[in-house]
Specification:
This protein is an alpha/beta fold and 293 residues long. Among the domains are: 116 residues, 3-Layer(aba) Sandwich (Rossmann fold), CATH 3.40.50; 74 residues, no CATH class. 43% of the residues lie in helices and 11% in strands. The strands form three sheets. The protein has a five-stranded mixed β-sheet with strand order 1-2-5-3-4, with no helix packed on it. α1 links the parallel β1 and β2. Pfam families: 5_nucleotid. This is 5'-nucleotidase. One of its GO terms (molecular function) is metal ion binding. Belongs to the 5'(3')-deoxyribonucleotidase family.
Length: 293
Amino acid sequence: AGKKLLLITNSDYHYTNKMMKHSFNRFLPNDMGWRDLFDMVIISARKPEFFQMSHPLYEVVTGEGLMRPCFKARKGGLYSGGSAQMVENSLDIHGDEILYVGDHIYTDIDLKNCIETIMKGAKSSFSGVEPQYSALIHSRDHRATLIELINQKEVVGDLFNQLRLALQRRNTGRPAQTLAATNMDDQELTESMQKLLIVMQRLDEKIAPMLEADGELFSERWGFLSRAGLWDKSHLMRQIEKYADIYTSRVSNFLHYTPFMYFRSQEQTLAHDSYSHYQAQINGSAVDSTGAY
């Protein structure tokens, strides 16, 4: 499809050569080596400086990693240092034509400065999402029970707050204005609040260990990498959403698509969109029950 493939790594020559040989050479024909897979290889790139600064460029000329100064990169070469601008100029490509693949968001995608250079094009961050997704699937029953307990506590807590507000208003000589406290005197209000506190405490005793155990199927120490607590996204997940155009569990997933594929993002929902989705579900249920369209 006319695409070029580059390897840009911060590792030195000896480490890169050993790792790539081990990872690729055993799967290649005898007359091929890992370097034949790439149109250009750059080691010791010093990312993220690679994207915004110009370092001296050296060509690796021997199998032992000896280098000589070089002023222009060429296709098929093995280089050390340089800059993103040098790569663009030597291959006659520009930022919006580049799909950048990385697995470390701090060094592969500079959060402040790199976006305006080579990163103008599509970015792609690959995370180990498969084990986490599997753990989430197997945690469904656990999380459903946990959410139900939290919802119960919210209902009890709301009733407690209504009684608390009613008692507070009475103490200042104002009407209670809550249905829950209409027929209660002050002592009954206090006793009811104490009972509700006991109920919430018992719910907390069930909720706390379940919250602690949430995510243990993925990591006993860290829980889910994509979650912060039960509801929120983790800092890592927010960075991936913000700076990566695509993220997937492994590069081989792209084998299912042609090189000409244009990936489009799904609808980005807002908090209030959940109500419209809820209404759509209700309307769909009503249609199913009546058989009308």
